[in-house]
Design a protein that fits this description.
With 272 residues, the protein is mainly α. 79% of the residues lie in helices and 0% in strands. The protein has two domains: 5-200, no CATH class; 201-272. The chain has nine helices and no strands.
């Protein structure tokens, strides 16, 4: 699919702004799902963007960055995978397959970005101690710009060189290998769900999992319907839990009163 210069430019601009939004405004546009949808909208194939972004979003479930640790950058993978899949006329599964190594490579760039930003942080602390507050703003923006560059430049390179490189690769890839990659891409959502289930109390809440499976597999209830039932179940459970807490509190508070009203034999005195 031939993309216009405006479409290519918008994808690159979004690649720069996405990482700024991730750390500054944090609206949520940096999530892999949203990156796939927005990129798909720009290049004119929202369905592929939704598939690539949604699949990669599933892979992020159960994976979080704590204490400055770097994790695979699936949002960048969603942008690159969606763009290259549409630009080369390939399926969304191929876009996911392309995106996974991109996400892993981005780990190293994230480490480099955070390492340099530590220098900016120390310089800002030094200027604060010296009362040079105007320079603190400079170091803050230096960190912001570097953060945007750390994702924008790789996406720019993928846009410039990726399409031709991917086309050449697909010319030499045999059909059986391409089919295998597509099958692997179809399995990845199950991997994401498996990671999610590992973080959930499945052993104690297995009836809910069983009900959802029966509704979907046997009764053919749409995902939205199952989701609404899950919300109702969660609300009822929450309300019952609150009532139990109130009841336990009343029992606890009534303990001293009952103790005061009973005689030595443990029988409530009628005089009380």
């Amino acid at each position: 699919m031939e993309l216009s210069a405006i479409q290519v430019t918008l994808v690159v601009i979004f690649g720069f702004l996405m990482n700024y939004e991730r750390w500054i405004t944090t609206i949520g546009l940096w999530q892999a799902l949203m990156c796939g949808i927005i990129t798909g909208f720009i290049v004119g194939d929202v369905q592929t963007g939704l598939f690539v972004g949604g699949t990669l979003q599933l892979m992020t479930l159960g994976i979080s960055s704590f204490g400055g640790a770097s994790v695979p950058d699936y949002p960048v993978a969603a942008i690159v995978g969606t763009y290259l899949a549409v630009a080369t006329g390939q399926s969304g599964s191929v876009g996911v397959t392309i995106g996974i190594p991109v996400a892993i490579i981005m780990v190293q760039l994230d480490v480099l970005n955070k390492t340099v930003n530590i220098f900016f942080q120390h310089q800002a602390e030094k200027d604060v101690a010296e009362g040079k507050f105007d320079k603190v703003v400079f170091w803050q923006w230096a960190g912001n710009i570097l953060t945007m560059i750390s994702t924008g430049v790789p996406i720019l390179l993928a846009v410039i060189f990726g399409q031709g490189l991917v086309n050449k690769i697909f010319e030499v890839i045999p059909d059986w290998l391409l089919t295998g990659l597509q099958v692997a891409g179809g399995i990845l959502p199950a991997v994401g769900l498996g990671l999610l289930l590992k973080t959930m109390p499945v052993k104690s809440q297995w009836p809910a999992l069983l009900v959802g499976f029966v509704l979907t597999a046997y009764l053919k209830v749409p995902v939205l319907g199952v989701g609404l039932l899950a919300v109702a179940w969660a609300y009822i459970t929450y309300q019952n839990h609150k009532k139990m807490q109130v009841l336990e509190g009343k029992i606890t508070n009534a303990g001293p009163v009952l103790s005061h009203m009973t005689n030595e034999s443990g029988v409530i005195d009628d005089d009380e």
